[in-house]
User: What shape does this take?
Amino acid sequence: MAKRPPEPPWDEARLKAESLALGFSAARICRVDEAWAAADHLADFVAKGYFGQMQWMEDTLYRRQHPTHMWAEARSALVLALNYGPQHNPLPLLERRQEGVISVYAQNADYHDVMKKRLKQIARGYAQSTGHDVKVFVDTAPLMEKPLAHKAGIGWQGKHTNVVSREFGSWLFLGVMLTAAKLTPDEPEVDHCGSCRKCLDICPTKAFVNPYELDARRCISYLTIEHKGAIDRALRPLMGNRIYGCDDCLAICPWNKFAQTAQESAFHPRPELKGALLADLSDLDEAGFREVFRGSPVKRIGRERFIRNVLIAIGNSAEPGLIPAAERHLSDGAASIRLSAVWAIAQLDQAYAHTLKARHYEGEADSAVREEWDLI
Assistant: This one.
């Protein structure tokens, strides 16, 4: 019987080969036991209050500033990227005002689940064969994956603060395996943005204070996903029909001309999550919301924030036929939903909003909702 050839060693080449074989789009290595400018950039972001309600960013600032602050033994990182490029440019969907636009990355499976399973498989094989300690991360711990991707040569952090790749444009998910081993690093990528500022200029809410500097408090992705409660009145009209996330700054990037459609079927849009009618989405009760968004990142924000977003989109639709969809929520148990319903109806028909005020104002116990009625 022929002898089985010996397994190749788990060196840098095998780490990358195994990663690509599992479906990752890119795999590169960097050292993490060196100083980097990302620490100061994050401290400045927090000091200026740009994190909004994301209090954990301030609470975990020290740990976030450097990988070794979180794990002192860390010496190297395997940085993995997974392409989620859409089949079509998502920007034209913003003109279909009776439909709700969900960010490309959230139109099917939760990428955390898809990536972490594969990343753990790589880490397990490496740790068992080499004896080196490892830890894996997919955007769920205080680790700055984007600067690591830049340092490893996956891409560079563009002016929109997201990673841009010459192969995949702005459509990459990132995962990291930290290890105590001292691996040979790859060359970092250089910034290829040049004088382009398309990602900055397209932002509906002008959330970019400067190139490479984002005030999350004005970002539609933050507002629709992280922000709890009512959204500032000045920002609501700028949100259009975006009900979960915002792809504008990603989709406009000129490097997307080299982008590839995602090969991973879990990132192909589910029909019910792409171009769903606002009228149908507004009807979702708690059980319906959980059913429609089972396995999707959207489920994590909960029904209250989601329906709030849908109502703002209804208010921006210029379609009076959607008033009944908003009116049904004037008696919702969540104040932020009632408030958003008041605003949406007033946007579509001021006179009818006055009529409804006479029916609902006196029975409204929440001061913020009453203030919204007062503005009609």
In short: The mean pLDDT is 95. Residues 277-376 form one domain. DSSP finds 17 helices and eleven strands in the chain. The radius of gyration is 23 Å.
